[in-house]
Predict the structure.
Amino acid sequence: MRPKQLPGRDVVYGDLVRRYGEDSAFKQLTNSVAAGLGLMVLDVSTQAGAVLAATDESVFEIKMDSYARQSKIRERRETEKVLHGLVHLATAALGYPRPDDLASDTYIGRVSVEQVDGVVREACRILDERAAKAEQNNDPLAGAPELEQAWRAYARRPAAAATKDGRLASDTTRGMVSRALRFLADQGFLVQVSGEQGGTYRTTPRYQIQVRELAADSAFSELLELGVVAVADAGGTLRPSISDTL
């Protein structure tokens, strides 16, 4: 319930994590209590602690309205929800673009506001080209009207603009990405390491476990298949493949 808390920083928490791994009765009881609260125990480890996910209709489920309040989002229209979904999807794909990254407990990814915005914009461009080609062939993409509205809405927004006091305007795409990354940091999924590129963050073991669940989602796979996420080197420094043109 305290996402930033880690077993290595709390003796009692550390003892509970060890007991979960060694005492099968305690493990079963913990899982049962979690299920009664509408939670799934995704993993328990000394690195990440207890990583939980809310089930559908759980009181702990973060719905769009709750996310909007926490992230101070004014617009809550359906298209806006899809845009924020694209941002979170791109963040996960940038953090862990390869299956090996999700399998390695030592892997640490890095993402930045500029990277995530660049990846989503490139994905929008590719999807727009596909839609135009499909229209020329009189074969519109399945679900195209709703999807077109989302990616074209993102592409039309300015990437960055400053407010009168010098802050990043909230209605820009980078403002949207910045709020998403701060939200993930508040949940213990990311840790900010610098203010470069609009804000640069490293991933945490807790986020890796969550993304493992997400990786089974078709939308995650489809985004990677677009080819807009690339790995610069084996050391975990990631960049969008269009960075040389930005």
About this structure: The chain has two domains: 1-61, 75-226.
